[in-house]
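Subject: for your reference before the review

Hello V.,

The reviewers asked for a structural picture of the protein, and I figured it would be easier to keep everything in one thread rather than splitting it across files. Below is the amino acid sequence we used in the manuscript, unchanged from the supplementary table.
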Amino acid sequence: MSVTPQTQDRRRNLAEITPAGRTLARQVTSTLSQLTEELIRGFTAQETTALTSLLERATRNLSPR
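And here is what came back from the structure prediction:
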């Protein structure tokens, strides 16, 4: 990530993802996709839907109210 101060407004900075950051993001996305596939291997579509629903509910429980 690179950060560039804005000359017109010193309170602001422009943050941009660098080429190396884009490469890393693609690698992380690919790895997470592979792990997810391994995690649900052998699950039926119904089981995958149920797991997703439960995990979403659990995540909402951690969200600030």
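For the response letter, the relevant points are probably these. The first helix runs from residue 19 to 40. DSSP finds two helices and two strands in the chain.

Happy to draft the paragraph if you're swamped.

O.
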